[in-house]
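Example: 14 kDa phosphohistidine phosphatase.
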Amino acid sequence: MADALSKVPDVEIDPEGKFKYILVNIKVKGGTDNKVIVRGTKSAEYHNHIFEKVNPAMETLGLECSCLGGGKIEHISNDKKLRVFGESTGYGKADHAVTVEKLKSVYKDYEVTME
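Written out as structure tokens, the predicted fold is:
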């Protein structure tokens, strides 16, 4: 089941714009193997809308997830910039430092900052 974790991308965010994001811990049901993922989209009016999409998708893979917090990401693809800021009213503020590290691992040639 641990390979189910490796099949889940660390980061899935919109290619452009300013949008809400959440930091999610996913783990193998009944196990200890886990990892943290970033999910963000403009289509979410509230942070919980993102979690409501992520949770069932992870459950079908035999994974459990819990939201670690949220915030916003500004993605300026032309300038290769990502800015992490803000917080979620419902989930609280995500650890932006963790989010920045996850983003840097995927967007290697980007300038990634946090506020």
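The chain has one domain: 2-114.
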